[in-house]
Design a protein that fits this description.
Helix content: 25-40%
Protein name: 2-phospho-L-lactate guanylyltransferase
Strand content: 15-25%
InterPro entries: CofC (IPR002835), Nucleotide-diphossugar_trans (IPR029044)
Number of domains: 1
Number of helices: 6
CATH superfamily: Spore Coat Polysaccharide Biosynthesis Protein SpsA, Chain A
CATH architecture: Alpha-Beta Complex
Order of helices and strands: EHEEHEHEEHEHH
Shape: globular
Radius of gyration: 16 Å
GO molecular function: GTP binding; phospholactate guanylyltransferase activity
Keywords: GTP-binding, Nucleotide-binding, Nucleotidyltransferase, Transferase
């Protein structure tokens, strides 16, 4: 377990099969399924390299996980070993919140838990660490996306129930359920999720993960 036990977060990431992922993301000359897969894998790699993460739980019906999960960053460039990645299989995709609940059910409630969406290709581990440090002081925490309406991260301290409400206007839904905004900077890479080409361009300006960057050339 990494770091102080109070900050050793278990993070659930739902990942759709690439053929079903990112239906609104049509980058010219780039296969959408391959792009969705690259974005998800870059996100998982970044989360695993955050120092406050004890375990990453990927919930997916996609084939090819965990094969090929290792990041291409040379080991000397890494500050610490990556957290373990555990795969929870879905026989068929059952929806975003159902997948998240499936992953959360495999984690003891006495542990601090978080849910992060798998569409943050510019995510820097340090930005996630900063948010999780703030989450240690909140019973239920929230990071809204760059537009302010969606949620990219929700958290629950040890012993607190975590109920996902992702979908349209999820930030408002999570606030209504008791989540408080964690005060993450607006320019944080943790806020830049990607569903459209315009959002992908904004993420690229922050610096994309290696798989997504390579795919986009």
């Amino acid at each position: 377990m990494n770091g102080d036990a109070g900050f050793a977060w278990h993070v659930v990431i739902p990942v759709k099969p690439p053929a079903r992922g990112k239906s609104r993301l049509e980058a010219p000359g780039v296969d959408r399924a391959a792009l969705a897969d690259a974005i998800a894998r870059d996100t998982v790699d970044a989360v695993a390299r955050a120092s406050r993460v004890a375990e990453v739980v990927v919930v997916t019906a996609a084939s090819g996980w965990p094969e090929g999960l290792a990041d291409s960053t040379p080991p000397p460039a890494r500050a610490r070993p990556s957290a373990p990645i555990r795969i929870v299989r879905e026989s068929e995709p059952a929806g975003l919140n159902a997948a998240i609940r499936r992953g959360l059910a495999t984690i003891d409630r006495v542990l601090p838990r978080a849910v992060l969406l798998g569409d943050l290709p510019a995510l820097r581990p340090a930005d996630l660490d900063a948010a999780l440090a703030l989450a240690g002081a909140a019973r239920l925490g929230l990071v809204a996306d760059a537009e302010g309406t969606g949620s990219t991260l929700i958290t629950a301290r040890a012993g607190t129930a975590l109920v996902p409400a992702f979908g349209a206007d999820s930030a408002a839904a999570h606030r209504a359920a008791g989540h408080v905004d964690l005060g993450v900077a607006q320019e944080s890479t943790l806020r830049r999720d990607v569903d459209t080409v315009e959002q992908l361009r904004a993420a690229a300006a922050l610096g994309l993960g290696s798989r997504t960057a390579t795919l986009l050339g």
